[in-house]
Amino acid sequence: MERIGDAEYQVMEVLWDEAPLTAAEVADRVPADRGWSIRTVKTMLSRLLAKGVLAHEEEGRRYLYRPAIAREDYVAQESGRLLDRMFGGRLTPLVAHLAERDRLSDADIAEIEALLKALKS
Amino acid sequence: MERIGDAEYQVMEVLWDEAPLTAAEVADRVPADRGWSIRTVKTMLSRLLAKGVLAHEEEGRRYLYRPAIAREDYVAQESGRLLDRMFGGRLTPLVAHLAERDRLSDADIAEIEALLKALKS
DNA sequence: GGCGGCTGATTACAACTGTAGTCAGACACG
DNA sequence: CGTGTCTGACTACAGTTGTAATCAGCCGCC
User: Which of B53, B66, B111, B115 could cross-link with B19 by S-S, CB 3.0 to 4.6 Å?
Assistant: First the structure.
């Protein structure tokens, strides 16, 4: 599957959240802190189309854009990449790492324990 | 902290594993499947120096390279990035996600449970 | 029926990345 | 001593990414 840059990813997020949308609608929904012009958003949309991660249908003279890949699949691919690259593909060291780095509160721990308990059955 | 590309990262891995090393030694230790020329490795080393993630000391007319940032720190940064970008910074959804994707065996689950138990005390 | 605005398509351009080649100087061997 | 070798520095060049401008066509409003 194609790689997606940071900026492109934000456009995908918008469309994973709501689709189909026109270019203008996507531009409206992109987080304002990026300060993008509509032109930039349209460039992103074209590139994502070219990469095959977006699909479009024509609505009059405009396009309606929608994701062509599931967020799930993309996220799976990217987390797999990180895991393979940094932790030899093993999740435990990642959890240990984040825990040490104080990214895990007691509530988080309880939550994950509950999740694991559910998984075991 | 600076971003590091995939190829650059492999060079860092070599030096995190063993340092200091000369350029030639790094080239020897880089996984052969990349098929890099020594020139390529030297370019990587220069760029990593420029980015401040490597340090060098002179040994005669050569450099000895060593990491200027801890692997721990870099890994923390990158896993944080992924987590923020894909899971709103929360680890539980990542664990849930990977579990669903069959990246978690029963043994993994047991291991993480043990880890969490240790963390709670 | 012409004009302003919107659309996608095409083009621009700098930074970064992957992958190397060239160059000038030092060193080591014959 | 000369000559090839190795070093870091600099240069090259295409592909990707972020950010946008230009262009040609269509649509609705005055």
Answer: B66
B24: Cβ–Cβ under 8 A, 6 or more apart, which residues?
Answer: B38
In whole angstroms, how far apart are CA A105 and each of A83, B79, B82, B97, B102?
Answer: 22, 17, 18, 19, 25
* Model-wide pTM > 0.85: yes
C16 closest protein residue (CA to C1'): B5
Nearest to B109 among A97, A101, A120 (CB): A120
Question: Using one digit for the tens of pLDDT, what is the confidence trace for A81-100?
Answer: 888 889 888 888 888 888 87
Tens of pLDDT, residue by residue over B6-65, are: 999 999 999 999 999 999 999 999 998 888 999 999 999 999 999 999 999 999 999 999
Residues 6+ apart with CB under 8 A from A63: A22, A23, A45, A56, A57
| Side-chain-facing half-sphere of B51: CA atoms under 13 Å | 18
Per-residue flag: B39 CB under 7 A of strand C:
yes
